[in-house]
């Protein structure tokens, strides 16, 4: 019996009886498989997936004319602000970012990539694209397009969940489901 037939049969039985019959479990498996591949690709640069996300987000916001702050980076990347703070401390220790007082908000720090940070992003982006193509390229073009559309729909629904997102970032302590 094919995997799809097993899943269709499981749907007919009602609520999932096994973890692999749930979307959440399967999404968790796929997300972590993707993350492991990206981490392996970034390892020569001594960057984790999350460090890359924070560096790339900072770079993107700067290139689009914004002055990145911890809160804005968290909002754009949709991650907890405390996590961003911890990652920024690590990136600062590596010499990839510098934090200075934000010109528009005395309570915030401006986050800028250093020269080393810009070099790290420039080296990491092609590695990410290559890992992404190797991983998701196993799907057909129609499959990739469909997956993208479904992910976009889920992200749109998530923006409407009360109490989970605050200014685009996960509230500290909020759980992602």
Care to describe what's here?
It is built from seven helices and four strands. It is mostly helical. It has a domain at 40-159: Arc Repressor Mutant, subunit A, CATH 1.10.10. The strands form two sheets. The protein has a two-stranded antiparallel ribbon. The longest helix has 22 residues, at 115-136. The radius of gyration is 19 Å and the shape is elongated.
List descriptors.
60% helix; two-stranded antiparallel sheet; disordered C terminus; mainly alpha; 177 residues; Arc Repressor Mutant, subunit A; two-stranded antiparallel ribbon; 7 helices; single chain
Give me the secondary-structure topology.
Elements: H1 3-12, H2 23-42, H3 49-63, H4 70-77, H5 81-93, E1 97-102, E2 105-113, H6 115-136, H7 141-159, E3 165-166, E4 169-170
Antiparallel strand pairs: 1-2, 3-4
Helix pairs in contact: 2-6, 3-4, 3-5, 3-6, 4-5
Strand order of the largest sheet: 1-2
Oligomer: single chain
Q: Roughly what percent helix? A: 55-70%
User: Mind describing the biggest β-sheet?
Assistant: 2 strands, antiparallel
The number of helical runs is 7
Form type:
elongated
Mean pLDDT: 87
| CATH class category name of the domain at 40-159 | Mainly Alpha
Question: Termini distance?
Answer: 31 Å
Q: What would you call the structural class?
A: mainly alpha
Would you identify the regions where 5 or more consecutive residues have pLDDT less than 50?
172-177
What is the correct CATH architecture of the domain at 40-159?
Answer: Orthogonal Bundle
β-strand amount = 5-15%
CATH superfamily of the domain at 40-159: Winged helix-like DNA-binding domain superfamily/Winged helix DNA-binding domain
CATH topology of the domain at 40-159: Arc Repressor Mutant, subunit A
Order of helices and strands: HHHHHEEHHEE
